[in-house]
Amino acid sequence: MSAISGLDIALWDIKGKQLGVPVYTLLGGKVREKVSVYGWIGGDRPSDVLEQAKERKAQGFTKVKMNAIESIGWLDSPDLLDATVERVKQVRSIGLDVGLDFHGRLHKAMAKQLASKLAPYGPLFIEEPLLPGHVDELKTLYQQTTIPIALGERLFTRLDVKKYFESGCIDIIQPDISHAGGISETRKIAIMAEAYDIAVAPHCPLGPLAFAASLQIALSSPNFVVCEMSWKMHYNQGHDLLSYVKNKEAFKVSEGMIDALTTPGLGVEIDEDLVRQAAKENGNFSWRNPVWRGPDGAIREW
């Protein structure tokens, strides 16, 4: 329900009859006919990215994203960064745009080196080059690179993003609709971002409801640029974005984009029987992120 928020109520009249409008109609109407999306390659420890990039291109994507770096120390060998540059060169060589997710794994000593090495190869953006909270440090990095800087998955409200907007240290905000108070708050973040000439690129390594809700924001926000799509993402095990969707064609990727959803509500039809069956079989399964440690045993950012 968090991805739907209070807007779900507006899709029903007082007699309980479903209204025949998409959510984006309630947000002021659509400002585009298609939504740009990107897929993931490389996994947590990026490898074989060229072959995966070729697969994504064949699937209809024109943009991909990958983790920039594996486990790395606070101050580590600069040689570790060369492999990242080589992966970007490989993906760019087949005509795909690529975003790099630093994942907050680097601290500023290494982040500024990697940003400098990547600049000649034109990444689409670098994401979370530093962990949230380092606003002044991020502003310094912003002034040192020409690559667009993105972040936002760990920020949850307008108040959280406000200091980043005012400091002028990011180009792209990435609210996660399941974290940021649903459609209503995410929409307000997008509107606020537009006033600072900041683009919106929803963070969404999630399921079909969250993805469809993110598409409603994308369709109604002038400053939207691209949405994350979890189809065939490396985290998916035993199920995928389309596993529980009846109208799978609604999420078809063509020339890097998905057509505007046109059916009432979120525009996605869920196979509820399959969801109940999976819940029964999996019980109280709860995903936990891995714990990474360096060679000295110290915990590192995953």
TrEMBL record:
Keywords: Lyase. Its cofactor is Mg(2+). The keyword Oxidoreductase does not apply. One of its GO terms (biological process) is amino acid catabolic process. Residues 46-148 form the Mandelate racemase/muconate lactonizing enzyme C-terminal domain. InterPro entries: DgoD-like, Enolase-like_C_sf, Enolase-like_N, Enolase_C-like, Mandel_Rmase/mucon_lact_enz_CS, Mandelate_racemase_C, Mandelate_racemase_N_dom. This is Mandelate racemase/muconate lactonizing enzyme C-terminal domain-containing protein. Gene3D superfamilies: Enolase-like C-terminal domain (3.20.20.120), Enolase-like, N-terminal domain (3.30.390.10). PANTHER family: D-GALACTONATE DEHYDRATASE, D-GALACTONATE DEHYDRATASE-RELATED. One of its GO terms (molecular function) is lyase activity. Pfam families: MR_MLE_C, MR_MLE_N. The keyword Lyase applies.
